[in-house]
Amino acid sequence: MEDFPFMTVAMCVPLAGAALAGLTQRSQAELARRIALVASLVTLGVVLLAATEFNSDNGSTYQLVENHNWISSFGVSYALGVDGIGYVMVLLTAVLMPIILLASWRDLDEGEHAQTGPGGGTTQLYVSMMLVLEAMSIGQFAALDVFLFYVLFEAMLIPMYILIGRFGGPQRQYAAVKFLLYNLLGGLLMLVAVVWINFAGPGGEKAYYLPNLVQYDFGTDTARWLFLGFFVAFAIKAPLWPFHTWLPDAMAEATPSNGVLLSGILDKVGVFGMLHLCLPLFPEAARHFAPAIVVLALISILYGAMVAIGQTDLKRLIAYASVSHFGFIVLGIFVMTSQGQSGATLYMVNHGFATAGLLLIAGFMMSRRGSRLISSYGGVQKVAPVLAGSFLFAGLANLSLPGLSPFISEFMVLIGTFTRYPIAGYFAVAGVLLAALYVLIAYQRTMTGELTEGNEDTPDLKTRELLVVTPVIAVILALGFFPKPLLDVIDPAVERTLTQVERTDPRPEHPVQVAAEEKK
Amino acid sequence: MMIPTSEAPAGAAEQLQNIGEATGVFNLTWLMIALPLFGALVLLCGGKRTDSWGHILGCLTVLGSFLIGAIQFLTLLGKDADERAYNQHLYDWLDSGNLQLGVGFQVDQLSICFVLLITFVGFLIHLYSVEYMAHDLRRRRFFGYLNLFISAMLLLVLADSYLLLFVGWEGVGLASYLLIGFWQHVPDYATAAKKAFVMNRVGDIGLLVAMFFMFDQFGSLAFDEVFEAVPGASDGWVTAIGLMLLLGAVGKSAQFPLQAWLLDAMAGPTPVSALIHAATMVTAGVYLIVRSAPIYNLSDTAQLVVAIVGAITLVIGALIGTAKDDIKKALAASTMSQIGYMVLAAGLGPAGYAFAIFHLLTHGFFKAGLFLSAGSVMHGMHDDTDMRRYGALRAAMPITYACFGLGFLAIIGIPPFAGFWSKDKIIEAAFNDNIALGLCALIGAGITAFYMSRVMIMTFFSDKRWDSGVHPHESPKLMTLPLIVLAGGAVLGGGLLINDGIVTWLEPVVGHEEAHHRMPVWALTALTLFVIVVGVAAALKMYQFSPVARTQPQGGVLVHAARHDLYQDTVNEAVLMRPGQWATRFLVWLDHRGLDNLVNGLAALLGGTAGRLRRVQAGFVRSYALTMFGGAALTVLAVLVVRL
Question: Do B205 and A429 touch (CB under 8 A)?
């Protein structure tokens, strides 16, 4: 199995699923959904199988590598492979996808996204586009060729654009165009940088092969410009303040399951790109811009959380909460400490599940009432205790309650920040308090108090919905108490990245454990 | 500090006792925590199927934990004083760079005290709740939350590192949130729950920052490693860590200036007030400070601030207590004040640690007893909590009266009841350390005697002021039994001091230092008793020998201030909440405005960039980029054309 192209297969299975689902008759919606679910489960199987070939002790090197020439004249190759960070992200995608598909089962039948008139797409299109996105995401996280990365980065916009524009809420066209414009602008900047690399870089048949570029000296100025080209593209995607304004619109208009796809997986490409490309390719520039980026990240954390507190629309609230969380991830990456970056990578995974939980459960509630406004709800806990209980659980995950997985990652990011930039740490830690406010305010207004008009008959979670919620809760709990298996995979890749940017942990100067080990 | 404690720094490192590998019964420490957690899971996820037996399971899991704790305690008793600490390492939790931390539990003289208090009082309160909550449709869930609380509280006191302690710390906060808002269909109760959680989070930030400092300076968060490394740190860092830990303690223990949530927390069912907001959770701050003794011993400044916070809180809590007509709020103010005593004692260093824990234990018993008795009174009074509509209840509910009475004698400090011994020791230690602190503690004792006598008289003596149709009656046996046991603790708790028992017991963990006596002990005790008698006499005059109005009288400025909790909410709202709301609203508005402008600007930018690129044909690179951008633009166009 050593040379088995796991990553290519992991991309092809969902593509095949998309094609198959697309071939079904319009009336066979149920069949299309089942095909999609099976395809995503098979993909998960492939990715899990790949774990047997992935040596986590050696997580700093790219493994499961496939390398074929593609456009030799332009130095482009079809190269895939993952280090510890990449594998964890592929795994996140593969685990979340079946959950998302299951959650989307009735998206087009009920609630505000029920498609009736013209403009509505078919179930076939809906699930196919989601599977295409899965394939492209896996490709992104596994791309070892910078050009391939770019192509997928741009290509991904189209299915997402269709999903928002065709299947979204009343303002879907506005949201879709805005999503596209912002991300195209980012893509454009990245394109300039990518083309520039071909001329400023080593060139040759493998001009875009990542391992070849890592050691390359572009010259200080060039590297800084190139860094900015990539970084801004990723910052828009992530999204980082002040490039965030497209996300609340997109997430509010997209179906909840697409919202999870967007913020849980697609946006991770942005932060992943920073860690995967920006730092190793342009170490000096990354160090140069790090303080400024840390400031942007801090603003994201606090601004996102404060604006979330003031939202009246439940989906927008969750979107702004995500802006705040992405701030933490970017912060962790650019403080350039072991804890910061390992924490940030773990944060990408944990945020995926915590947001999935909150948005999907909120989505289940919204599909019952057809309203996104917080004020439409009240006292739901009384008639739907399981719905309310799981919403609270997901909310607590979002406010990083210790014992749940997001706490570990947030704590690591914060502690990693403190050792490098103490002042930044003081600001970031305030996000802990603000998160409690937006989560508990949302819970209090929707779930507690007297049962308000229109919510009397809210049914509790159904079996399918419980099937969605249970694995999310299980993962959040498991990674809260046992994060080490994931950390063991992530840590070596982070250590390598830190070596590449020539940064070492500033403190602690006299770690107790090290002293104890020396004694032995 | 007036009295130099220069010996402490030198000896601090040597004071640390050896911690052995867990063997035998100490290997079951995890089970102590897991049992109630299992109970919580079954009750919360089991659904209606568990309705009929859920409360029994809830009681049994706590009883199981108590039994394990009791056996551990007896085993420790049988060992030498320097072999009473055991660590059980479960598994590796975090590993990143220099941050390596395992999940492990530590049983020693300090934590076992808490284990016994939590599980024993917890078990009694579970028993009591079976009857108290019998008519609540969601009783099963109530027991689920209580079990969750016990589990988290045990984790808090058994953790062997600050980070694991923090998990328990927030776990009890969550349980408290869920239980304050247990009747969450009442909007005010849900608000009270949120307020408690958020104010606790302010304190949590302190605890988090303290951990960041520790990691930064010592490279570890495990108790033993941190304490070993503390003497090597500079004074500034030690003080900073001490103050940040104090901030955490202040939030959890409702101390000044984060005390405002505790009175609102009385929205929870009375057993919750007894267990969480009197006997155990709110004392976690005291545990944190005493546990961190090796840190505080090295910073006089941090200790002084701790003592001052305690002194301020014990006085304001007592003052608030004098004006409350709601029996639960009067008791809550009293809790705040009594914890103030403990914090004050903890701030006195090795001279006070043991007495802080001593008072914590006796208080756990008599205050739980007082709250449960109050619950029993409410039970017989149609859930009315207003003491102005009580009066002369001693005949109608004799057992409740007797139990409340014993708790009352204990809390005001009448010998030989438990509170006399524990509080007297704190007053003595405070006087020895600093006259001002001593005076605060002394005056506090007088006010305590006054307001507790007021509660006692308004409830059980004076005249009948019941609403028509109310027929007070004694509570069923399952409720009075826990009362009797807790009253027993209020009577006998002072026994812990025989032969300096508790002081010697705790010494290997927290150290002990005989204080230099400023005045003879007997004189101070006499003075304290005199102040207490004055307080009782004043209450007798005002409430027993004068009629009590059924409606609240006007009252002067001071009474008004005390009724409104000394305006703590008003201040918080004006200084923090409103500006916060304005800031939030402004940012929402800005984001919305900025959003539109940015989109427009973006469109202009896109056009401009493309135009400029088209004009520049020089470089190969640029034309290539332009070609590709053209491709991208075509894609967009295609998508736009394909009908949205």
Answer: yes
**CB–CB of B621 and A195 under 8 A?**
yes
HEC profile for B530-552?
HHHHHHHHHHHHHHHCCCCCCCC
On chain B, the residues whose CB falls within 8 A of the CB of A240 are none
Report, as an integer, the average pLDDT of A190-215: 86
Cβ within 8 Å, pair A484-B92: yes
The predicted-structure confidence for B271-329, as pLDDT tens digits, reads as follows 999 888 888 999 999 999 999 999 999 999 999 999 999 999 999 999 999 888 899 99
Q: How far from the centroid of its chain's Cα atoms is residue B160's Cα?
A: 19
Chain B residues touching residue A499 (CB < 8 angstroms): none
Chain B CB contacts of A507 below 8 Å: 216-217, 219
Cα–Cα distance, B461 to B308 (Å, whole number):
37
Q: Which residues in chain A touch residue B196, judged by CB atoms under 8 angstroms apart?
A: none
Among the partner-chain residues A381, A401, A481, the one whose CB lies closest to the CB of B174 is A401
Instruction: Enter the DSSP assignment of A160.
Output: H
CB burial class (10 A; 0-12, 13-18, 19+) of residue B540?
A: middle
The answer to whether residue A321 scores a pLDDT higher than 80 is yes
Length of chain B: 644
User: A296 burial class (0-12, 13-18, 19+ CB within 10 angstroms)?
Assistant: buried
CA A168, A170, A171, A173 torsion-angle sign? positive
Give which of B324, B319, B461 is closest to B390, Cα–Cα: B461
Nearest CB neighbour to B215, from listed A342, A415, A451: A415
Name the closest residue on chain B to residue A506, using Cα atoms. Answer: B216
Q: How confident is the model at residue A78 (pLDDT cuts 50, 70, 90)?
A: very high
pLDDT at A110 (0 to 100): 64
pTM: 0.91
Residue ranges per domain, chain A?
6-114+123-515
- Model confidence at B548, pLDDT cuts 50, 70, 90, reads confident
3-state SS assignment for residue B18: coil
Tokens of A383: 């008639």
A-interface mutation test, from B591, B614, B642, most A Cβ less than 10 A away: B591
Q: Which residues of A touch B595 (CB under 8 A)?
A: 245
Residue A187's nearest CA partner among A155, A225, A141, A142 is: A155
Return the closest-CA partner of residue B507 out of B206, B290, B189, B198: B290
Look at A114 and A254; give whichever has higher pLDDT: A254
Query: How close A356 comes to chain B (CA, Å)?
Result: 21
Mean pLDDT along residues A356-362: 93
